[in-house]
Amino acid sequence: MLIEVEHLTVSFPAESGWRDVVRDVSFSVGKERLGIVGESGSGKSLTARALLRLLPTGHRWSAERLRFEDIDLLRADEAALTRLRGRRVGLVLQDPRFSLNPVMTAGQQIAETWRTHKGGSRRDARSAAIDLLRQMRIGDPERVADAYPHELSGGLGQRVMIAMMLAPDPDLLIADEPTSALDAAVQVEILRLLDDLVARRGMGLVLISHDLPMVSRHCDRIIVMRAGQIVEEVPAGGLAEARHPYTRGLLRCLPSLLHPRARLPSLRDTSGWPAS
Amino acid sequence: MIAVQELTVRLGKADVVRGVSFSVPRGGAFGIVGESGSGKSTILRTVAGLVPEWSGGMWIDGDRLTRTRSKASYRRLQMVFQDPYGSLHPRQTVDQLLSEPLLVHGIAGVDARVARALDEVSLLGPLRFRYPHQLSGGQRQRVAIARALIAEPALLLLDEPTSALDVSVQAEILNLLADLRRQRNLTYILVSHDLAVVAHLCPRIGVMHHGEMVEQATVDDLRAGRVFHPQTAALHALHLLLERV
């Protein structure tokens, strides 16, 4: 197992005491593709950040077990966390416009990451960066390497981000809504690229999204979260047989080109799970 | 109700919309789909009067739209944007946000109209004196729709109105928009990258590609795969793939 989480709870201060935003969550991830699906506020992103101990300040967290392979994240100090973050686990966020440095070229940023983790000369780092961009199926990697983030489209920006995250050869990639800011055709390209990279490098992938059909196409296993809890775990191919009313509700409320309906069912009409 | 004839829009040195024509009857809904940068949002912004440099013709109920618009002409159409947080003034309460269009257009009975507008979008009374940051994304989009409708326009321009929302909230907003159109005989132009969303609300769609509207089709044709332009076929195939679970 790459990651083992048992009884993870994350809380934030609210007007009336502490409010649990992740509640008693347990799961593990191996060299596989795990999807975490939920709506905003379901705790899916905080769960992923807890895996890197990257929670915002002011929170409180606890777990009975939180491990990344040989690293015990319950006890890890900053030095151990620094060796984990980036090097062994990469994190790709939603919008490359906010996660890339606007005053460095794409190539400089990838090269910097590569050198931080692997050492070597500037020249080696530059050629490694261009090679990584080529692996992202970018046709003219030299041009992209010399471009600043604002000169790149959303899809190219996200490829640069992924290239940077893959530079240290991590064992696991966590992608938090990696394609939500991109249009549909580019989304498909980026997800196919991720599929291919994960398979070729033998990495684990945690893909976080609100888009249940998309996650089912690109993962092996899906965890559905609602109000901080895991409500159901389903194999990606078995979404049609999902049992929990919330999972079924998420699928039913999507408009469909093939199966038109005059009204879309709303999740508020659905009952059958305990009120939070 | 609205007719657009050979519309060309120039931004900087490039024509981002080239020779686009379409029309929508009163009470109808027309969807515009296309990739980002295809010019679909620019069409909406030009109809709304937010883009000064354009050529061609646009008519609402037979009246030609000019580059400078009268206050009365702005009352006929309203726009709803993708991000309700960006489109609502953060320092105004819901009550102020909804009252402003009424004051601008000199419409009487502000208090009762604001209460009714909130009721129509299913927002409860206590929300009336909250600020946008105190509302959820779905509530904010309901406020944006209430604000767009309060001066009783005939034409609603919807730019990705559900793209920033959760799927369950998207379902509620799409139902609300369908109900309002029927009840008030409103005319919609809806722009979205999501073909399923467009097909849900609009019986006719236009496909944009590199600034041109390459095909117009009914949703029935689209569902049956009776489309001609490669771009429409590609979009159709992509969405069939996206719907597969």
CATH architecture classification of chain B: 3-Layer(aba) Sandwich
Termini separation of chain B: 39 Å
User: Rg of chain B, please?
Assistant: 18 Å
How many E-type strands of chain B?
10
For the largest sheet of chain B, list the strands in their spatial order. 6-7-8-3-9-10
**Strand numbers in spatial order across the main sheet of chain A:** 7-8-9-3-10-11
Q: Describe the largest sheet of chain A.
A: 6 strands, mixed
Overview of this protein structure:
The complex is a heterodimer of chains A (276) and B (245). With 276 residues, chain A is α/β, with parallel strands linked by helices. Chain A has a domain of 67 residues. Chain A has 10 helices and 11 strands. The relative contact order of chain A is 0.16. Chain B is α/β, with parallel strands linked by helices. In chain B, the strands form 2 sheets. Chain B has a 6-stranded mixed beta sheet, sandwiched between helices. The model of chain B has no long low-confidence stretch (mean pLDDT 91). At the A-B interface, helix 8, helix 9 and helix 10 of A face helix 7, helix 8, helix 9 and helix 10 of B.
